[in-house]
Amino acid sequence: MGLWSVAAWARRIERAFVLEQEVPAAADLLRFYRQVAAFQMKASGAGAPVEQFRGPLLGLLQQRAPRVLANAARDLMYAKDWDPADPAPRFVERVLAQCAPCPGHGRPLCSVQRDGKRSLVCPLCFAEWDFPGIRCARCGENDEGQLPVYTAEQFSYISVEACDSCRSYIKAIDLSKNELAIPEVDELAAVALDVWAARQGYSKIQPNLFGL
Fold first, then answer.
1. SS3 labels along 69-108
2. Which of 65, 97, 129 is where one domain is finished?
3. 86 and 122 share a domain?
4. Which of 75, 109, 156, 172 suits 137 as a labelling partner, its CA being 20 to 30 A distant?
């Protein structure tokens, strides 16, 4: 699924709409994501430098984002310098980064199981690369006893792949169990698993678009 395909963005938006109905606890997040993804679809297909879309994005956030983020976007509109440690500027930059050419794979957003094989997903362009099935995507631990996998009844095709060596985790999307899933969207819908993992003392290898 290519980042630059308008059809790919449309599929993400459609999948988010479906998941709104299936995962009520994440409905507000997914509804907001659809607004952001529609903006990204337009920006990535415009062929213009993404910096030109910073102002329009801040305008969208003021109108559509939750109150705290909307207020922060209003302040950023008039700020000369942005604090990179502030969650609001980080969110804006993540949104724009997903509209630009990918500089290369960093820490993976999630993992994917397909036909008995495992791959990791880039958090920017959503491209996949092969990765061993029994290995921590952060520290490389390959002792199966140190790599517990946790599941929840609500998400039969999504699991938490944890590492007790570095106390990190990544969410895994099993496409053999749900071929309709779109990893970068279904990962968002399973935010309850992030809350659970954090309570167990695990840290996420790579936060998603919303910093979760």
1. HHHHHHHHHHCCCCCCCCHHHHHHHHHHHCCCCCCCCCCC
2. 97
3. no
4. 156
Task: Name the H helices within the chain.
Answer: 6-22, 27-44, 54-64, 67-78, 87-97, 183-189, 191-199
> Which residue from 31, 26, 14, 28 is spatially nearest to 154, judged by alpha carbons?
26
The two structure tokens encoding residue 103: 């500089």
- Residue 120 and residue 63 share a domain: no
Phi-psi region of 100 (alpha: psi -120 to 50; beta: other; left: phi over 0): beta
Q: Could you give the percent of the chain with pLDDT greater than 90?
A: 85
- Among candidate residues 71, 61, 16, 64, the one with its CA nearest the CA of residue 183: 16
Arithmetic mean of pLDDT over the chain? 94
Give the model confidence (pLDDT) of 94-153 as tens digits.
999 999 888 888 899 999 999 999 999 999 999 999 999 999 999 999 999 999 999 999
What is the amino acid identity at position 103? P
